[in-house]
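User: I'm writing a tutorial on reading structure tokens. Could you give me a worked example: one chain, its sequence, then its tokens, then a sentence or two explaining what the tokens reveal?
Assistant: Sure. Here is the example chain.
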Amino acid sequence: MPCRDVFDSRHFANPFSTRFTRPGKIEPRDCSGQPLAILQLLKQLHDCGGTAAIQGPHGSGKTTLLVHIAGELQQRGGLAASLRLRSWRDAPAVFFAIARSRPGSTVCLDSWEKIGCIAGWLVRMAARIFQCGLLVTSHRRTGLPVLVESATTRELLASIVCQLPDHSRWSSSLIKESDIEEAFSKCGGNVRESLYELYDRFEHRRPLL
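And here are its predicted structure tokens:
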């Protein structure tokens, strides 16, 4: 019987919708499509002094990896806060999270570059004072130790597609390997945008089911 969270009596849910592809729903993978070992990354983060960066281009899985690491930290009682940054105006929330943190805990920050150079420097100083770690994502170098250098590849996109609900039921007819190749090229290697493109293709071909 099909899973109720994927099917209902009226239609087949698009497996490329954000309910299935948003960060936290997909297992983080490296550029070869192999699963990343979260526990090993936590050990590496500890070896870096608790502060490091996940860096790479847009749509390469940085946020997905950050969400999984933050979840593991939370289970272990080591997560102080997890915040998504939009501009330097988010700096007060970051300072507040650091001030409330316990020594040795970690503050996770998505989109580090958006906070700006001056606020970023002040955040790093505050983290040192309160003895908490920082794990950030960024599209460019941050001056922090690099925990993971992410990259976008066709293999990564293909491995994500294989994780989606009921892959075997639609992969041979609606979304084929050639679609994955074309979407990856059309979107300039951005995996997130490629998934949006595949969503549209799935919707266009849905009547074929």
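What the tokens reveal: Strands lie at 52-55, 79-84, 106-110, 133-138, 146-149. The domain at 38-149 is CATH 3.40.50.300 (Rossmann fold).
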